[in-house]
Amino acid sequence: MTLDLSVADAAVKPAKTLPDAQTVTSVQHWSDTLFSFRVTRPASLRFRSGEFVMIGLPGDNGKPILRAYSIASPNWDDELEFYSIKVPDGPLTSKLQLIQPGDEIILRPKPVGTLVLDALLPGKRMWFLATGTGLAPFASLMRDPETYERYEQVIMMHTCRTAEELTYGRELVENLKHDELLGEIYGEDFAKRLLYYPTTTREESPFMGRITDNLTSGKVFEDLNLPPMDVANDRAMVCGSLAFNVDVKAVLEGFGLREGANSDPKEFVVEKAFVGEGV
Ligand SMILES: Cc1cc2nc3c(=O)[nH]c(=O)nc-3n(C[C@H](O)[C@H](O)[C@H](O)COP(=O)(O)OP(=O)(O)OC[C@H]3O[C@@H](n4cnc5c(N)ncnc54)[C@H](O)[C@@H]3O)c2cc1C
Ligand SMILES: NC(=O)c1ccc[n+]([C@@H]2O[C@H](COP(=O)([O-])OP(=O)(O)OC[C@H]3O[C@@H](n4cnc5c(N)ncnc54)[C@H](OP(=O)(O)O)[C@@H]3O)[C@@H](O)[C@H]2O)c1
């Protein structure tokens, strides 16, 4: 009997049918509007935590529907994780929300983005400021040991309309506080170095209010027992809707921080969590 090796091999490892195909390894739905998933990582893909790539699926006409997605996993992870909105009738996410383990997605392996550690001057405290799925790049940066090498404290402020929309971020932070790798590197005090400030705006929860309001009123500094932001010590990364980005930029500038870039590091950087109407 001759063994058809191509068939045996295909049974173990399905032939890749899409260009730049990666295989979905797990999917978790967090609400009617949010889900996360993990895919295989191309062996050649190197990225800096906080960057985004283009991912997608073939459209009905065979042409790929591609969208920008922040990589939510840190750069040391063997797989890639993404955290996604489900837009009703969205060209990509109406299909993407149906993916199952074993399915393939398209992933263009060209990471880019402004939310990288090198785009900021050294400082003492790093503020991650996000609304909605704008948490995704910080899900990567919070899990990267280099963030804690560079900053004594990391403060994750995440605001959503409802408490349910905070769940992915909340579980991630809770798991991180007991993370073996970070605990090994930074000891028992690690949990104190990552401060989490989740708020809601349209549903009662322990902490309420927009990020902009909690910064300008000083409430977040009082609640976390921190001094107000200053240019010598505080650095920030911002990721949310266009309206949020515009408003929070003005707040940060009010504290004396200046917007930087990869080529010109300063005290804060901004990236859109999605393209849409907003101001
Ligand atoms: C740099 C960058 C990084 C991004 N990273 C992510 C990410 O990590 N996760 C993610 O879910 N999306 C992310 N997006 C948005 C993403 O590119 C798509 O817009 C989203 O997947 C919806 O695709 P769609 O084709 O279904 O709808 P689209 O036609 O792209 O969007 C339709 C409308 O839905 C709204 N919308 C789109 N995305 C979002 C969102 N994330 N949150 C709230 N409202 C939204 C907007 O009003 C938009 O006009 C990012 C966008 C940019 C520019
Ligand atoms: N998430 C939902 O339940 C929902 C429902 C229907 C439609 N949509 C649509 O989907 C899109 C995205 O929704 P989303 O919930 O991810 O984003 P979003 O509407 O931008 O709201 C996310 C969070 O950011 C806050 N925020 C919005 N603009 C801000 C600003 N300028 N400064 C400070 N904080 C700001 C919101 O507070 P406020 O609540 O105070 O605005 C909310 O807590 C929007 O176009 C929205 O109209 C969302």
UniProtKB/TrEMBL annotation:
<dbReference type="InterPro" id="IPR001433">
    <property type="entry name" value="OxRdtase_FAD/NAD-bd"/>
</dbReference>
<keyword id="KW-0521">NADP</keyword>
<dbReference type="InterPro" id="IPR039261">
    <property type="entry name" value="FNR_nucleotide-bd"/>
</dbReference>
<dbReference type="InterPro" id="IPR017927">
    <property type="entry name" value="FAD-bd_FR_type"/>
</dbReference>
<protein>
    <recommendedName>
        <fullName>ferredoxin--NADP(+) reductase</fullName>
        <ecNumber>1.18.1.2</ecNumber>
    </recommendedName>
</protein>
<dbReference type="GO" id="GO:0042167">
    <property type="term" value="P:heme catabolic process"/>
</dbReference>
<comment type="similarity">
    <text>Belongs to the ferredoxin--NADP reductase type 1 family.</text>
</comment>
<keyword id="KW-0547">Nucleotide-binding</keyword>
<dbReference type="GO" id="GO:0034599">
    <property type="term" value="P:cellular response to oxidative stress"/>
</dbReference>
<feature type="domain" description="FAD-binding FR-type">
    <location>
        <begin position="17"/>
        <end position="118"/>
    </location>
</feature>
<dbReference type="InterPro" id="IPR033892">
    <property type="entry name" value="FNR_bac"/>
</dbReference>
<dbReference type="InterPro" id="IPR051930">
    <property type="entry name" value="FNR_type-1"/>
</dbReference>
<dbReference type="Pfam" id="PF00175">
    <property type="entry name" value="NAD_binding_1"/>
</dbReference>
<keyword id="KW-0560">Oxidoreductase</keyword>
<keyword id="KW-0285">Flavoprotein</keyword>
<keyword id="KW-0274">FAD</keyword>
<dbReference type="GO" id="GO:0004324">
    <property type="term" value="F:ferredoxin-NADP+ reductase activity"/>
</dbReference>
<dbReference type="InterPro" id="IPR008333">
    <property type="entry name" value="Cbr1-like_FAD-bd_dom"/>
</dbReference>
<dbReference type="GO" id="GO:0000166">
    <property type="term" value="F:nucleotide binding"/>
</dbReference>
<dbReference type="Pfam" id="PF00970">
    <property type="entry name" value="FAD_binding_6"/>
</dbReference>
<dbReference type="InterPro" id="IPR017938">
    <property type="entry name" value="Riboflavin_synthase-like_b-brl"/>
</dbReference>
